[in-house]
Amino acid sequence: MLYRENGQFKTSYTSDLQVFPIAQDRIGIALLLAFAVFAVPLLADEYMFRAILIPFLILALAALGLNILVGYCGQISLGTGAFMAVGAYAAYNLFVRIDGMPMLLAILLGGAFSAAVGVLFGIPSLRIKGLYLAVATLAAQFFCDWAFLRIKWFTNDSASGSVSVSGLSLLGWKIDTPHEKYLLCLGIAIVFAMLAKNLVRSHIGREWMAIRDMDVAAAVIGIRPVYAKLTAFAVSSFIVGVAGALWGFVHLGAWEPAAFSIDRSFQLLFMIIIGGLGSIMGSFFGAAFIVVLPIFLNQALPALGALVGVTISTAAVAHTEFMIFGALIVFFLIVEPHGLARLWSIGKEKLRLWPFPH
Amino acid sequence: MSADTAVGPTAAAAADPAAVPGARRRRQGEVVLEVSNISLRFGGVKALTDISFDVREHEVRAIIGPNGAGKSSMLNCINGVYTPQEGRITFRGRTFDHMNSREVAEMGVARTFQNLALFKGMSVLDNIMSGRNLKMRTNILQQAFRNPWWSGAEREESEHREVVERIIDFLEIQAYRKTPVGRLPYGLQKRVDLGRALAMEPQVLLLDEPMAGMNVEEKQDMSRFILDVNDEYGTTIVLIEHDMGVVMDISDRVVVLDYGRKIGDGTPDEVRANPDVISAYLGTSH
Amino acid sequence: MGFFLETVIGGLMAGMLYSLIALGFVLIFKASGVFNFAQGAMVLFAALAMARFSEWFPELLKFDSKVLANVMAFVAAMALMVAVAWLIERLVLGKLVNQEGITLLMATLGITYFLDGFGQTVFGSDIYKIDVGLPKDPLFLLEGTFQGGVLVNKEDLYAAVIAAALVILLSLFFQYTSTGRALRAVADDHQAAQSIGIPLDRIWVIVWSVAGFVALVAGIIWGSKLGVQFSLALVALKALPVVILGGLTSVPGAIIGGLIIGVGEKLAEVYIGSKIGGGIEIWFGYVLVLFVLLVRPQGLFGEKIIDRV
Q1: Which band of pLDDT confidence, cut at 50, 70 and 90, is reported for residue B15?
Q2: Nearest CA to C253 among C268, C264, C242?
């Protein structure tokens, strides 16, 4: 009743090619963005910004980058943490070593470095496929783990092995309150989501999906696997690198290589699997799920335990989180292997018919 | 296929032998594609042995033979999917030892696949649009900053969308354009496969069993599409097909393969009378 | 020269242990087409079970004999691993038949997290001891040829011999028994194997139990050396390059891959690592495998992947 396409005719290909062809969708997205920009800062407290919203936005951005590589182009990568680290450390070195380097530029250039490294580690994908490629990407992960720990130059010869940044600002505005940090991350996330959406619905996106679905046939219609795969690695690593720089600069403030370890790589992979492979929106859904779940369990489990009179230690909570997390992953994969994004589109399809059953 | 169930142009031919086939014959040009002494082996298995034949411009050339004769392998060699151990392929006067898939596509050769190598995750529209890939020129940055108000990428996308829509009209699959191809019935998927090949605006179209698994009506439709493409655009067609009726009706010349060797080459009538061909298909009594 | 030999022998023995874990991966992949990321978690879980059971049984049943405790613990731990295998088949694999590789991989990652959490909840998260009587003293070989002799760790030696024996046993099992043949059929094509009457579910329980057995032995050996603690699960990450180097489908590949990586790591650490900051063991195996894959994308002994169109 509310969600109908009736009467919405498209008279040009351009209008049919819009991202949100249905008017109700456009209104919905506009409302959501307005809510995020104006309402959330009024409703959220510092804890929510720091523990939920900012990590959510940055990790969603990283998941977006990973989704381009894994979900759209079909190249399994387990080394995402390493690319985040490259972005973070590159941005750090530029910011700290070059006087007057604007923060945003440092972050973007960090992404560019990450893109270059991504292309380098993407070269094996031209020969190696599937699980073999997944393990090959671990080489990137472990090598970067080691490099950022042992090679002193990267950490500006810091004695403790960790680095920190301060004095963030954008075009003259200082960014130190959580509210400002949130808006910065929100802005960057929105811009990158739009750019990514444009790419995946243009011909490079179709090339990526063709390589994913059947690369032999793709070659026969003239797609160059080399170009498609390396651009996927480049674009993906750029976005992941920017996310890594944001993670270090905005979320953590001070970090060591362990912030970008293999656990981070797995976490991002879970996000896109649960959120939905090959879906921009899915990256956000998955990030929200994975960020909120541990926090939810942290509150809910002791509360549940108190109900039955059992005190659950923090270690036990951590272990139970692992168990629930693992069980949920398996559950999701069985019930909806295409992730939350598919559930969302099924929901919308039902909404188009509501209140009629079919 | 008997005369009363034949498709349009050939039904006309049955009524008036001097009409369409003659028109096609008049348009047949020089040799556009030639394979010489092609041999292909996989380990110990010889898929093709010393195959040579040519294809003339604007003709419909059929490749027939029992299962396992090497027909698909032959197309795969022309396309650059397989590399033959011996032999050469000549296209428009340029000779190659082996073909590179992308170069072949750029030279104007498109193909469909026996097992439908469609991109299952994409819609019909996207699948056919992917065939336009070679003609798209915008770079990544232009595509990333695409918008409805002032964008080269948006314009290019619309232009190619127009071409693809005409192909969709031609193949009568308008209702399915946004459906993911994995959900379509087999016959429609075959049309999408053909559509994707047509989107490349090819000079030579290699069709690998385009009518496999179809009923009579679907075969008529597909034959009609193929002949229309040949008539309207002058596309040279190389066609692998099992249905003898279709082959005899729509092709100008036929190559017969058996166990990787060529056992017949000529017009449908010549081939039909060839004793080697007859024994390959029907077996001889010893 | 003596030092070089020591390093090589140490590497060979470490490599043998990697092979043991790699074998678990290869078995499961060969028989069910699943890349079991949970192998490490299984090693940890089995080791935890063994360690704790060997403590609890003497307490509960009030006896002293260490040998008896170990034997009972081993049997109990094995039974537990079979139960785990059965549960995995029922709840996870059975529901994901014929899904894509990445889905199954992710499912095994989920199992990893679950087993980690479950194991530590039930068995505790301290460091536990396993003592099955493996000698801990060193052995000096070839004292005549090299001054001071070549130092060989007796525990490692015993471990290597046990691992080698297991590997040979399992290879024979795969090649020459009817169950082994059925396992290979299943690995080739789930649906085809089902259609000729091979009981997919039972086969999978068998395979995962065998992998559980391998995990248990590996867990005992590693746990005896390092103590049973959470980092044991990360041992699997060291075995991954071995699996890939040898080729996902090859049992001899797992052995040879293990030896190469074991020796390579040790030599690299000693001769290269000392020059560039140390600690390169963490990535040496992976980078080595990366370069091998560039030349042979299917590993040294893996099956070539042919794309048919």
Answers
A1: very low
A2: C242
Which of B200, B230, B250 terminates a domain? The answer is B200
Task: Identify all chain A residues contacting B208, using CB atoms and an 8 Å cutoff.
Answer: none
Chains that touch A (3 or more CB pairs under 8 A): B, C
Taking CA atoms, what residue in B is nearest to A277? B121
Count of pairs with CB atoms under 8 A, one residue in A, one in B = 110
Per residue in B29-73, pLDDT tens? 888 899 999 999 888 888 899 999 999 989 999 999 888 788 889
C305 CB within 8 Å of a chain B CB: no
- The Cβ of residue B119 has, within 10 Å, a number of other Cβ atoms equal to 24
Nearest residue to C27 via CA among C85, C94, C92: C85
B-facing residues of A in 272-301 (CB < 8 A) are: 278
In this complex, the chains that touch C, judged by 3 or more CB pairs closer than 8 A, are A, B
Q: Which two tokens stand for residue A127?
A: 């020969």
- Residues C152/C6, Cβ–Cβ less than 8 Å: yes
- Chains linked to B by 3 or more Cβ pairs within 8 Å: A, C
**Residue B82 forms contact with C (CB below 8 Å):** no
Residue A56 buriedness (CB in 10 A; 0-12 / 13-18 / 19+):
buried
Query: What average pLDDT does this structure show over C47-75?
Result: 83
- Closest C-alpha among B127, B62, B130, B51 to residue B86: B51
Reported pTM: 0.87
Looking at residue A102, its pLDDT comes to 85
> How many domains in chain B?
2
Backbone angles phi, psi at A76, to 5 degrees: -70, 130
Of the residues B168, B200, B232, which one is the last residue of a structural domain? Answer: B200
Closest residue on chain B to A193 (Cα): B144
pLDDT band per the 50, 70, 90 thresholds, residue A204: very high
How near does any CA of chain A get to the CA of C292, in Å? 10
* Rounded Cα gap, residues B132 and B113, in angstroms: 18
A107-118: pLDDT as tens digits: 999 999 999 999
Between A120 and C207, the more confident residue is A120
* pLDDT at res. A205: 92
Which chain A residue's Cα is nearest to C286? A139
Which residues of chain C neighbour A130 with C-beta distances below 8 Å?
101, 305
Cβ contacts (< 8 Å) between B115 and chain C: which residues?
309
Identify whether residues B228 and B194 lie together within a single domain.
Answer: no
| Overall average pLDDT of the C105-113 stretch | 86
| C296 neighbourhood in chain A, CB within 8 Å | none
C67 Cβ contact list (under 8 Å, min separation 6)? C133
Domain that holds residue B102: 3-108+202-282
Domain ranges of chain C: 2-230
CB-based contact, B143 to chain A, within 8 Å: yes
In this prediction, residue B9 carries a pLDDT of 44
Enumerate the residues of chain C whose CB falls inside 8 A of the CB of residue B80: none
CATH for B239: 3.40.50.300
* Domain co-membership, B94 together with B9: yes
Q: Is C309 on the interface with B (CB under 8 A)?
A: yes
Closest residue, chain C, to A319 (C-alpha): C117
Residues 6 or more apart whose CB falls under 8 angstroms from that of A118 comprise A83, A233, A234, A236, A237, A238, A240, A241
Question: How far does the CA of residue B96 sit from the closest CA of chain C (Å)?
Answer: 22
Instruction: Count Cβ–Cβ pairs < 8 Å, chain B vs chain C.
Output: 5
Q: Does residue B254 lie within any of the structural domains?
A: yes
Task: Identify the pLDDT of residue A65.
Answer: 96
* Helix intervals (H) in chain C: 2-32, 39-61, 66-91, 101-123, 154-176, 178-188, 190-195, 200-226, 235-246, 251-271, 281-295
| CA pair distance C262, C260, nearest whole angstrom | 6
**Whether residue B29 is found in the same domain as residue B56:** yes
Task: Tell me how far apart the alpha carbons of residues B122 and B101 are, in angstroms, rounded to a whole number.
Answer: 22
